[in-house]
Amino acid sequence: MAGQGGPVGESPELFEEGQDFSSGKTAIRIASVAALGGLLFGYDSAVINGAVDSIQEDFGIGNAELGFAVASALLGAAAGAMTAGRIADRIGRIAVMKIAAVLFLISAFGTGFAHEVWTVVLFRIVGGVGVGVASVIAPAYIAETSPPGIRGRLGSLQQLAIVSGIFLSFAVNYLLQWLAGGPNEPLWFGLDAWRWMFLAMALPAVLYGALTFTIPESPRYLVATHKVPEARRVLTKLLGQKNLEITITRIRETLEREDKPSWRDMRKPTGGIYGIVWVGLGLSIFQQFVGINVIFYYSNVLWQAVGFSADQSAVYTVITSVINVLTTLIAIALIDKIGRKPLLLIGSAGMAITLITMAVIFGNATVNPDGTPSLPGASGVIALIAANLFVVAFGMSWGPVVWVLLGEMFPNRIRAAALGLAAAGQWAANWLITVTFPGLREHLGLAYGFYGLCAVLSGLFVWRWVMETKGVSLEDMHGEILKQDKTAAS
């Protein structure tokens, strides 16, 4: 989740011209199924966008309660992410994927049939746990089953699935809203359209659960649980026979232990937490503090506030999600060629420019009597263009690259625990940004100014602390991290 040659043990020669590509196709198929969790992740995260006003109207709640209802799934996601790695180390990656599929299914029906706001909150938290689990298990599994020469591209499938899920939810929301004549109008069986927005998630949840029965367990988990013959069979499918025994030996060496995996694995023998763990946590927090999910969770409300109708806002939201999908394809094409770090730096610069532009525009907007900003003429158009260019900058960089890095940057021994901690930090940051935004609707210039500052800081953070992982095998990651810690200490 690397373009030039990988180290001995994971042979990129399998993908050179004239070689057999069957193993590469197997890796792509397996990664695609695992990434379906990202589709549900994106759908569940964004589906609330089309139901925000309806939930507030139906249940008669204020902005504070609405913010909590919208952000409740993120609390579940943080809990799911924190525990998923440890559970995956005990029962396997595939079993955890199946659990996530069941949680998505329960959330779809529970939220769709909810008759009070706290029921919505409860089942959004259940779905959030599924999101958190999927956010950890997919990048870890994809990294552990991908040949290094295409690991970045396969790892990016997670983000492609996430943004496709966001697009799917926006498209389904718009279609259901159009069929019913409004999100709060009855559609089928007397249920309002906004309820069907949640119920529709049941279909991809069932598909994801069924397809998890068609993919093998992670070979690194199999080696860790002493199922070497099975690991050998999986690695043969993924990498072919070349250097197979060397690969297994090196995996064994990086996983060898007498005790059970625990959070203590993230501590260095000399004391303190491995620097790479803090880097992963920093990447996760910055990914959210640039405010990307404000665009997706509240875009309908945002664009109505600056003069667009409800239908126009829904159309612009779908267009924004399409842009997000297309720019993720740019990242997939570039990540194994130019590397992870350059993409992040380019993205930070683009996000900073566009967010600061939005901060200036909203900071100088006139305010209507109801407290909402007014952006007549060119200022509204510039704000819309800047918002979409921000999505372009994020979609080609911080969106996919952070997930790729989190899946591959940690050594085998601590991958699940460290990824779980980083993902939990990401969801906690996401929750904080999401729950505070309704109170900032009357101060959008300040909000976007803060996000722009975080974009600037994210670039400085990458420049100083992020290690390039292109071309580094998972088994070589431990040595690179030790060198990085020694350098930082000196």
UniProtKB/TrEMBL annotation:
PROSITE patterns associated with the record: MFS (PS50850), SUGAR_TRANSPORT_1 (PS00216), SUGAR_TRANSPORT_2 (PS00217)
Topology in the lipid bilayer: Multi-pass membrane protein
GO molecular function, one term: transmembrane transporter activity
Subcellular location: Cell membrane
GO cellular component: plasma membrane
Swiss-Prot/TrEMBL keywords: Cell membrane, Membrane, Sugar transport, Transmembrane, Transmembrane helix, Transport
Ranges that cross the membrane: 66-88, 95-115, 121-142, 196-215, 273-298, 313-335, 342-362, 382-406, 418-440, 446-467
PANTHER family noted in UniProt: D-XYLOSE-PROTON SYMPORTER-LIKE 2
Family membership noted in the UniProt record: Belongs to the major facilitator superfamily. Sugar transporter (TC 2.A.1.1) family.
Protein name per the record: MFS transporter, sugar porter family
Organism: Mycolicibacterium gilvum
Lineage of origin: Bacteria, Bacillati, Actinomycetota, Actinomycetes, Mycobacteriales
Gene that this polypeptide is encoded by: xylE
